[in-house]
Design goal:
Helix Hairpins; 382 residues; 20 strands; four-stranded antiparallel sheet; Adenine-n6-DNA-methyltransferase TaqI, Chain A, domain 2; alpha+beta; DNA-binding; 10 helices
C-alpha cells in the first residue's frame, strides 16, 4: 500500500481543553461513527485550535478510513472533510492506480486476516507500518471498475434485506407503542422501577495476571457482543476457565444484559436477552426479573427506551449508568397478561425475522465468496 497510498493516523485533542471542543467546526470521527460504506457525519466536532494543537489531521472527501485499534479492519469511504481519532488511519490512494470502490472492497475482504494479525499484538491493534506493508492486487482500472460494480450490486441486495429486517423491528416497536406508549416520552403514572421487579448485578474481570482464570469453560461477554439489532448476544471471543468463572459474574437464560459503561452515548443502553449461561464484564449490568414479570417484555421496554437511557447516563467523558441508577430507572407498569400478549405478537414477528436472517446470512456468504474470487483473478481475469 505504501507504493500507491499516503497513510496517516489520527489524534485526539486534549479533553481538558474546552477551547478544543466547544463550538467545534471540523468533523472528528470515532469508530462508533462507522455505519456502512460511506461516512457522512460525526457525533463530535473539534475546533481549529484543537486540530492545530493535536496529532489529528483533516482528511479530504474520498479518503478511506480504516480502523487500526481495538475494533480492527472496519472500512469506510469519507464523504465529508473530517479528522479522526488515533484508532483510525486515513488512507489517500493514487486514483490513477486504484479505483476507490475496488480498494474499499479489497480492504473489507481481508478483515479476518488483519484481525488475526492484530490479535498477536498486546493491545489488539495494527500499526501504520503493518498497514503500509499490506499487499493489494492491482489489475487494470477497467477490471477494477467491473469488480466494484459487481460487488456494489450484490451489496445493495444485502442492504435491501437489512432494511426489510429493520422494518420488522419497527413493526414490533409500533405494537409496543400502541399497547404501552412511547417509553422515551413522559411515562404515565402507571410506572415501576426496575429494582421492584428484578435483581440487578454488575459484571467483572477476573485478574488478568492470573492466566488460569481464562480458558474455554464459559463465554465471557463484553459490550461488543451486545449488538443493537440482535435479540441475543453474539458468541464471545474470550472464555473464562472454571476457576475464572468462580471469580467472575454469571447470568443465565432469560436474563437481560445492558451496556452501562461506554465511550459514547450512542453505545449506552444496548440490550440483549440471554439464551444461555455466560459470564460478563464490568461494563455490563445483568437484569434478572421476578416470576411476575416477562423478561422479553422488559427486554423490549429497555430496547425502546434507548434514547432515555442515553440521557440517563452521566455526562463525563466515559458515559455510565451505575447499578443503583439503573435500579431506579422507570418503565411502564403492565400486568403479566398484557406483557404476555405483547410477547406472543413479538415472537410471531421474530419468527419471520429469523427466516429473513437466514436468507441474509446466505447472501453475505455468497458475497464473501464473490469477493474472494474477485481478488484472486477468478471473476474477471485480466
Amino acid at each position: 500500500m505504501s507504493e500507491f497510498c499516503s497513510i496517516y493516523s489520527g489524534g485526539t485533542p486534549s479533553r481538558n481543553k474546552t477551547e478544543y471542543w466547544n463550538n467545534g467546526e471540523f468533523n472528528w470521527v470515532k469508530i462508533s461513527d462507522f455505519d456502512g460504506k460511506y461516512l457522512e457525519k460525526s457525533q463530535e466536532k473539534i475546533t481549529k485550535r484543537g486540530l492545530e494543537k493535536s496529532s489529528a489531521k483533516l482528511f479530504p472527501m474520498g479518503t478511506i478510513l480504516y480502523t487500526i485499534f481495538a475494533t480492527l479492519g472496519e472500512v469506510a469511504i469519507l464523504n465529508i472533510e473530517a479528522a479522526t481519532n488515533q484508532a483510525i488511519a486515513g488512507i489517500i490512494p493514487d486514483r490513477n492506480i486504484i479505483d476507490i470502490n475496488y480498494f474499499y472492497y479489497y480492504l473489507k475482504s481481508i478483515k479476518k486476516k488483519v484481525v488475526s494479525e492484530g490479535r498477536g499484538v498486546a493491545q489488539n491493534n495494527i500499526n501504520l507500518t503493518m498497514l503500509k506493508n499490506i499487499s493489494v492486487p492491482i489489475p487494470s482500472i477497467n477490471t477494477q471498475q467491473k469488480i466494484s460494480i459487481t460487488l456494489d450490486l450484490t451489496s445493495k441486495l444485502i442492504e435491501k434485506r437489512k432494511e426489510q429486517l429493520t422494518e420488522m423491528d419497527r413493526l414490533i416497536q409500533s405494537v409496543f407503542y400502541e399497547m404501552f406508549g412511547d417509553p422515551n416520552k413522559t411515562l404515565p403514572n402507571n410506572q415501576i422501577k426496575l429494582k421492584d421487579i428484578s435483581k440487578i448485578s454488575t459484571g467483572n474481570t477476573p485478574p488478568r495476571s492470573e492466566s488460569h482464570n481464562y480458558g474455554t469453560y464459559i463465554e465471557w461477554i463484553k459490550t461488543d457482543n451486545i449488538i443493537s439489532n440482535s435479540l441475543y448476544p453474539t458468541t464471545a471471543d474470550e472464555y473464562l476457565s472454571e476457576e475464572g468463572m468462580k471469580k467472575g459474574r454469571t447470568v443465565g437464560e432469560n436474563s437481560i444484559l445492558i451496556t452501562c459503561i461506554a465511550g459514547s452515548k450512542k453505545s449506552i443502553g444496548k440490550v440483549v436477552l440471554m439464551d444461555r449461561k455466560v459470564a460478563f464484564n464490568q461494563q455490563i449490568n445483568a437484569i434478572t426479573v421476578n416470576e411476575e414479570t416477562n423478561s422479553k417484555y422488559i427486554y423490549y421496554a429497555l430496547k425502546f427506551s434507548k434514547l432515555r437511557l442515553e440521557d440517563y447516563a452521566n455526562d463525563s467523558m466515559k458515559k455510565m449508568i451505575n447499578k443503583s441508577k439503573l435500579e431506579n430507572f422507570f418503565i411502564a407498569k403492565a400486568d403479566l397478561e398484557k406483557q404476555n400478549i405483547f410477547t406472543d405478537i413479538a415472537e410471531q414477528i421474530e419468527a419471520q425475522k429469523r427466516v429473513m436472517e437466514e436468507s441474509l446470512k446466505e447472501m453475505e456468504n455468497n458475497f464473501n465468496a464473490l469477493m474472494q474470487k474477485a481478488f484472486h483473478d477468478e471473476l474477471f481475469p485480466d
